[in-house]
Structure to design on (515 residues):
């Protein structure tokens, strides 16, 4: 009997457990999945909590609901991986041997990495919305906030769901307009990147959208520290921006377990072959989702597309065949823009987000890089798809590889 | 595509002014690239450029954080050396591709 061990029962790990349990013989492969937390969060829903569109109960379900029979689920913190001995050590002293390891431990927000972030204003005037606690605290704050300078700050790249801060400022704009206090709120979007987005065509579309909504963009701002007394954010080159209410994307880092195991880079992400998803150092370790250092978005859609590729490569590896499936970095992101509309982008390692239709060329129903009502419904329906299809590793009518069909080439 | 000539050697550049062939780099090329931006390179600048080239050749993804932890210069010092876009400018003078941040 061989052991396949999955570290992390989030989006990526849960999908892989489902796919692989169906494919591997139960008398040949034991599958174990390990996670320290019992609650599965629908993370795309966090964004809606501050604006009272969702509440906490809309985004949580027990992890055990999604782990199939025949998979051994262990709730315990992982101490470290000893990759040279093929062992996983748990903090309670248990040792799990593996023949094949899948790392899916994701990324975490680390407000403690920036001086002054997790300080006396934390969850009073400074909030994140990448944790359920932060999103709920911000909802409470917004209920009684009288207005002022709202600053959306991205600390450092890479970070999970790179469109979320753009969605956040769009939703905030609509939220305060609906409350009749838009004129009392000044919204500023501050980013270390050189524009609202890095890829040129999408940046152009999104910059125009933010301008239309009277949201100011301050690019090339790399945060050094936050002054809690004067309520300022200060960059390494000494630019200062005042805030009354600061929403942040803190530094993102991989699990500390990766650091303890000596498997990560300087942000604790695991160096991974961007096409095969195999660890660069250990051939019996594969990495999926936000835990990998591959140069694409840290997002559930990426984990989903990568899951199809990883599934094929794991079967090849087990059968001693070369790893033929190649991940192309495919990502697909709905962007909520407020007022019941949304935009959609679809891209990969080599192709930037382009305008067009998705998934059917010329038909859609979704419009790429267009701000439409149907795109918004796509995002709303997605929560159902996530719980019922995606996590269970079932097929969606979208290919893992990105396609150019339905996309228009543009030059700017 | 642009082009500059340094010591009789023709150097191809991208539209943004980054070298297309990092192997053509030498110190004179770096000085010429910086001069085009009215920028002067000192020994402290060259320490950063050489670190970037070494890491680039090893296949590393370069970030401001990584340079800040290199022991050569901290992030604040890096901003002082290359004001306005430390990684963008240092990569340009180091002859390596423009840093891309993924979406």
């Amino acid at each position: 009997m061989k052991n396949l061990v999955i570290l992390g029962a989030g989006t990526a790990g849960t999908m892989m457990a489902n796919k692989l349990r169906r494919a591997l013989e139960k008398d040949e492969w034991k599958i174990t999945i390990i996670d320290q937390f019992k609650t599965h969060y629908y993370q795309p829903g966090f964004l809606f909590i501050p604006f009272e569109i969702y509440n906490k109960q809309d985004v949580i379900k027990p992890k055990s609901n999604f782990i199939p029979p025949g998979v051994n689920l262990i709730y315990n913190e992982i101490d470290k991986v000893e990759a040279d001995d093929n062992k996983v050590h748990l903090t309670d002293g248990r040792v799990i041997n593996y023949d094949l390891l899948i790392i899916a431990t994701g990324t975490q927000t680390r407000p403690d990495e920036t001086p002054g972030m997790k300080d006396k204003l934390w969850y009073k005037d400074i909030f994140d919305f990448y944790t359920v606690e932060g999103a709920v605290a911000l909802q409470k704050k917004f209920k009684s906030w009288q207005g002022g300078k709202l600053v959306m700050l991205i600390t450092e790249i890479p970070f999970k769901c790179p469109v979320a801060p753009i969605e956040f400022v769009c939703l905030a704009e609509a939220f305060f307009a609906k409350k009749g206090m838009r004129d009392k709120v000044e919204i500023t979007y501050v980013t270390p990147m050189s524009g609202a987005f890095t890829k040129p065509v999408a940046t152009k579309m999104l910059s125009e959208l933010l301008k239309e909504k009277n949201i100011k963009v301050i690019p090339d701002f790399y945060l050094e520290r936050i002054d809690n007394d004067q309520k300022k954010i200060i960059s390494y080159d000494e630019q200062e921006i005042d805030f009354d209410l600061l929403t942040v994307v803190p530094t993102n880092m991989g699990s500390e377990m990766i650091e303890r195991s000596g498997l990560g880079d300087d942000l604790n992400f695991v160096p991974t072959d961007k096409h095969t998803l195999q660890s660069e150092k250990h051939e019996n370790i594969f990495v999926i989702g936000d835990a990998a250092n591959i140069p694409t978005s840290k997002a559930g859609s990426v984990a989903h597309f990568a899951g199809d590729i990883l599934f094929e490569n794991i079967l090849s590896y087990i059968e001693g065949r070369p790893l033929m499936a190649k991940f192309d970095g495919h990502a697909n992101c709905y962007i909520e823009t407020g007022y019941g509309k949304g935009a959609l982008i679809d891209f990969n390692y080599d192709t930037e987000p382009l305008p067009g239709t998705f998934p059917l060329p010329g038909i859609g129903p979704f419009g790429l890089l267009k701000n439409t009502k149907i795109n918004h419904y796509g995002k709303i329906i997605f929560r159902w798809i996530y719980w019922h299809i995606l996590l269970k590793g079932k097929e969606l009518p979208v290919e893992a590889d990105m396609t150019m069909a339905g996309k228009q080439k543009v030059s700017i | 595509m642009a082009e500059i000539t340094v010591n009789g050697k023709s150097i191809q550049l991208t539209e943004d002014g980054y070298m297309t062939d990092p192997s053509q780099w030498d110190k004179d090329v770096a000085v010429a690239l910086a001069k085009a931006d009215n920028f002067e390179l000192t020994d402290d600048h060259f320490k950063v450029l050489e670190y970037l080239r070494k890491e680039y050749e090893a296949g590393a993804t370069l970030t401001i954080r990584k340079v800040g932890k290199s022991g050569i210069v901290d992030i604040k010092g890096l901003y002082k050396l290359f004001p306005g876009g430390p990684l963008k400018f240092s990569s340009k003078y180091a002859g390596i591709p423009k840093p891309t941040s993924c979406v």
User: Anything to note?
Assistant: Residues 22 and 68 of chain A are 9 Å apart (CA to CA). Chain A touches chain B through 26 residues (CB under 8 Å). Chain A has three domains: 2-106+255-318, 111-250, 331-390. Residues 331-390 of chain A form one domain.
